[in-house]
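Final report, closing paragraph on structural work. Over the funding period we assembled a curated collection of sequence-structure pairs, and we close with a single example.
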Amino acid sequence: MQFGDWDLRPLVVLGLLGLLLIAETNAQEERPDACSSQQILTSPCRCCKMDCWYAISKTATHELGHVPGQAGENEALATLKLIRACMIEECAELCPAQRTPFRPRRLAQDK
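Its predicted structure, as stored:
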């Protein structure tokens, strides 16, 4: 590619690299729902649960054509059940076992 005495190939390559850089920067800004690599290292359980939440809610929104729950409470509850199932299946190895709820001795002895 020539323009007079100028070779335009380096300019085209530089322009394409610039576009790729801009696209990558915008993609990262559009994904506030994703954890950074540093966050994944420091709190993998939280990031796994966030991934489940956003992935399932995005899929449900796509399938339903609207935000889950907009057409009734059953939609919202079904979506929450799917999110919970994802968290149990996908995040079990990353998250510590759940602690049993606190029960005062007085109530435990009354039974």
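The radius of gyration is 24 Å. The chain is about 65% helix and 5% strand. We thank the funder for supporting this effort.
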